[in-house]
Amino acid sequence: MGRSPCCDKVGLKKGPWTPEEDQKLLAYIEEHGHGSWRALPAKAGLQRCGKSCRLRWTNYLRPDIKRGKFSLQEEQTIIQLHALLGNRWSAIANHLPKRTDNEIKNYWNTHLKKRLAKMGIDPVTHKPKSDTLLSRDGQSNKSAAKLSHMAQWESARLEAEVRLVRESKLRSHSFKQSSSGGGGGGGISSSGFSSASTFAASGQLLAKTTRIGGDHLESPTSTLTFSDNSKQQQMTEFVGTSSDQQGGTIIKDESEHDWKSSMPNLGEFKESVGSHTLPFTSTGFHHDIPMSMSLETTPWTIHDSRIKTSMGGHCSSLENDIEAEGFTELLLNSSGEQSGLLEGSGGGGGNSENGGESGGSSRDYLEDNKNYWNSILNLVNSSPSDSPLF
DNA sequence: AATACTTGCAACCGCGCCACA
DNA sequence: CTGTGGCGCGGTTGCAAGTAT
Asked: Where would you tag: which of A142, A181, A342, A366 has the fewest CB atoms within 10 A of its CB?
């Protein structure tokens, strides 16, 4: 269609922002909010396009931006999230409050990417570069591809769940506000939300944002299919259980509370990672989640465009993969390929250095594989005091 | 001291998605 | 259903500051 770029207008300024311009933009937004970015420059008296203003605001002027050096924790978070999400900087930035996607992207490109490369880790795949040597036989390639699918799968699912939880929080928040006027909404404490209620909100959202087709519900969170309402109820109950697993104590941080309680499968994810020899076990992935995986029987529809993007059209093959082997076997079978070490491999210290063929007993690969996934999943499940993520 | 090269980061560009008419 | 405008995202560029020669 060829829409002309917003900055094509002659007379609009480009390039670095002056302090005066910053001041104008700040003052305007503080007073009026940004509203329509397109209309903002004229109203604020700026000779800039709206896009430029938005960029300046989101990347630089926003008051909640943390500037300066990235902490070790932040670095680790970025690396691990990048392993999961790839170059989806905004998604990564969502997990690093106060950091902008642009900043993270820059930091990745200028620091982390190089560092990983130096360590012999491919910054794209997060696997040791020598792994490519391993993948000569078709079997290995196939398994590697499967694992890649799994990562994409998890990535997409995680994101969708993040979004759901966030939205549910918003909903809960507005509900709290409205109900506080009307005399207390049933069962929601003033100091925070019970996990069940939070997830209930999430469930409402789920119901709202998903299509109910016949006897099953297609969920944007990807993995879940309900055969009937009772299972939805089950889900809510499960959430309660999940919070019990945390000792049933009041959690300081509301966001953590919401997160952990609203993502039972992630909790189980952790359980299976932490307490079993293998990163995933069939029990960890299947039975603990009270909803049945429907991949075998249900045509799986992705409604979320971002999932579509991140899945990159691999859904069907993934479906087949899971159908054929299941999550556990996938990881077991592909352990030979997935030996990336995110941390502790400084100076090429990983045991797959210089080609896996020499150091590559299947046991080692298994171990590496476990480490790899553990390191990623640890992030997802790390405590809020340790991680900026949750 | 002058020049070349490297690094880090702010800003721009183009594309795709989404809401709406 | 389709076209359009607004917005957000990821990739890329350009420039200033720092470092090496």
From this structure: A181
